[in-house]
Amino acid sequence: MAQRYHVFSLPPELLETLIPRNLISQPPPPEVSTLIHTAPLVSDNARACNICLGATFADVTEQRSHFRSDWHRYNVKIRLRGGSPVTELAFAQLVDGLEDSLSGSASSDESSDDSDAVKVLVNKIKRTSRSPSLSEERQTPLTALTWFHSPPSTQIGVYRMLFPIDTPAPSYLAELKSIQERVEGGRKWAMFMVAGGHFAGAIVEVSRPAEDQDSTFSAKTKKKPPKPKPETSILKHKTFHRYTTRRKQGGSQSVNDNSKGAAISAGAMLRRYGEQALRDDIRNLLLDWADDIQDCERIWLRASVSNRRIFLDYENCVINKGDDRLRTFPFPTRRPTQSELVRCLLELTQVKTSHLTEEALRAQDEAFLASLPKPKATPSVVPAAVPEKAKPQRLTKEEEAYREKWSRLLEMISKGRSEPLKSFWEREGASLGGIDALIPEWIGDRHASLLQVAVQSGQEDVTRWLLYELHADPTILVPSSGVYQEAANESDISNAPPLQGTGSRRTAYDLARARAIRDIFRQCAGDHPDWWDWFGAAHVPSTFNKEREEARDEKKKQRKKGLKEKMREREARERERESKQSDIDDEQVEAKSEPRSQDPTAPRKLGGSSGAVDGVVGLTAELRAKVERERRARAAEARLKMLTGA
């Protein structure tokens, strides 16, 4: 049976031999610095190598032979990679550690390439000396357990959550040794679980106090020594349950209300009450255990995001939200019960043990590394140059006032405010460039003149005022897709010529959707034909003649009146035709419904004669129903006569 160790009372002989477990269990090879020896002093007249330590030569031939040796090439490679060179003795020790022998000698000059031994040694030093890259560290998963190795074949695992949060991995062994010391009052933990309306909490002692030592008994005492007290013991515990979750549904009622809206049912009300009662019970329990919780070294909490607010997010809470003692269970847990708390306590305090040899650990680590995904090479993509957005030009006070005038003018025209418009134009018309000034491009309007804006808005009074009193130009073309001439800007808007040859070849008259607006153009063309090219550039079809318009209106009225009379005559003929058809149908029904003389001695067929069926062939559904009612009435009268005669 495997021996079990308590994390707070490990054997001293085991602690002395523990070393942190690396990813590769093989102990790291001695660094290059340990193989470096101090080079002997060289006289000024002797020849020496500036890279290799302690290498002196009697003549040039010996120096050249050294430059072709594997030792010198190895030192050059290491020096280029940022390492330190080694002595000839250290290099010989490195070569002896390789399985393959040297492929060349120091005096061979047949090839200038590095030998296999130099390549293997350089690659080996590169692997052992380089630190893991960020991509590899990111891909290596961080397990819940940290392992320690005790030669030759013992490994123990301890949960990382037992150590302080800010403890680096190399300091885990020192922390493990420090928690073996007993403290006054012992080490206490607080453990809480809540899920599905179930709650379980406990205050446990995980290490006996320093003053609680087993008394020693002399050999003369006949009494048996008492059994040692267990390291872990439960000081306080409490469990209760409230109805907060629908059976086989999952999720609390509050979460369901937040996602789908408040449900209106008796069960939902009971679950809401259960949640409130559970929250009050837990907080009251925390208040009762406040002194014990303050003395605890760790606080273990298993709760969902919504249930964590029961313990942390409320006024005068016992456990602060940023408490360094807070931990979550680093393994799956079951329903919150007292037995589950005991199981979790044993899982946290009992050390995991294994007995694997160095070869088995190495094979295990290599298989683990092989299973990890290889880091993807991040392509060095040069980000495309993003064009800088043009900063909006700040306007002067004069420009802001100028834009405000244009905005007010267009608003009054589009809304038909004639009186304010006339007074505003008398005051500001000249500064805006006159009646035929092109609308500035920064406004974003699809019209080129004030007359086009008034016509498009359907304002009759404004259109008449612009044509008759201000002599607005009706020949200005409507721009297409915001096409403006370069002269249509704020700096020289008064000298802008009318748009010619651009746009969709439409004028203000073409924008008029109402007949009254078009008649204003025709009236002005008839009253003042010499003002503009009304029938050409302005697209006005003809002048307005009142008598001719009245005659045309009268003709339309007469035509409508004739159409109405024709419709009335047609409806009268339809009603007369329908009445005649109904009279004919009634006569046919009466003729077919007269009783036929039958021979009383003639045999009668069961179900009646077929004459009744033949009589309704070709009739409509209403007529057939009427015939059927008459036939049944006569049959009833015949039965009554037979009864009275009898």
UniProtKB/TrEMBL annotation:
Q: Name one GO biological process term.
A: ERAD pathway
According to its UniProt record, where is this protein located? Answer: Cytoplasm
Q: Which GO terms describe its molecular function?
A: endonuclease activity; hydrolase activity
Biased composition (Basic and acidic residues) is annotated at 545-556, 564-597
Q: Where is the signal peptide?
A: none
Alphabetically list the UniProt keywords.
Answer: ANK repeat, Coiled coil, Cytoplasm, Endonuclease, Hydrolase, Nuclease, Repeat
Q: Where is the active site?
A: 253
- What Pfam family is a match for this entry? bVLRF1
Q: Its GO CC terms? A: cytoplasm
Instruction: Identify the residues that the record assigns to the VLRF1 domain, covering every copy.
Output: 185-351
**Region annotation (Disordered) ranges:** 210-232, 545-618
Name the coiled-coil region(s): none
Similarity comment: Belongs to the ANKZF1/VMS1 family.
PANTHER family registered for this protein in UniProt: ANKYRIN REPEAT AND ZINC FINGER DOMAIN-CONTAINING PROTEIN 1 (PTHR16036), TRNA ENDONUCLEASE ANKZF1 (PTHR16036:SF2)
What domain notes does the record hold?
The VLRF1 domain mediates binding to the 60S ribosomal subunit.
**What is the protein's given name?**
VLRF1 domain-containing protein
